[in-house]
Amino acid sequence: MRLGMDEIINAVCLHIAERKQVKPTDVEVELSWDEQYGFTAEVWVQGRSQYLVEANLLEAIERYMYTKYGKRIFRSQIELDVEDEMWADIRE
What we know:
By secondary structure, the chain is α+β, with helices and mostly antiparallel strands. Helices cover 35% and strands 36% of the residues. The longest helix is centred in the N-terminal third of the chain and has 16 residues, at 5-20. The radius of gyration is 12 Å and the shape is globular. It holds the Pfam family DUF2653. InterPro entries: Uncharacterised_YxcD. It comes from Marinicrinis lubricantis.
């Protein structure tokens, strides 16, 4: 299964909204990748920004897969990749 960039952003929005006790629509996410830091995201909630590292992104995807698709997956089953945009391959 493959999650596109939009679904990864949705996963992060839902995850952060639950943690910060805000609505998912109150969360803004910008995904990025670079050689030094790998996969990261900058998240804005109520005017404050926060950086997420790859482990945080994988946690958000795990929770998203469980709540949206009812599938229990582990971080070892998720592989993030990027070409023109980011995606996540989920091995089952």
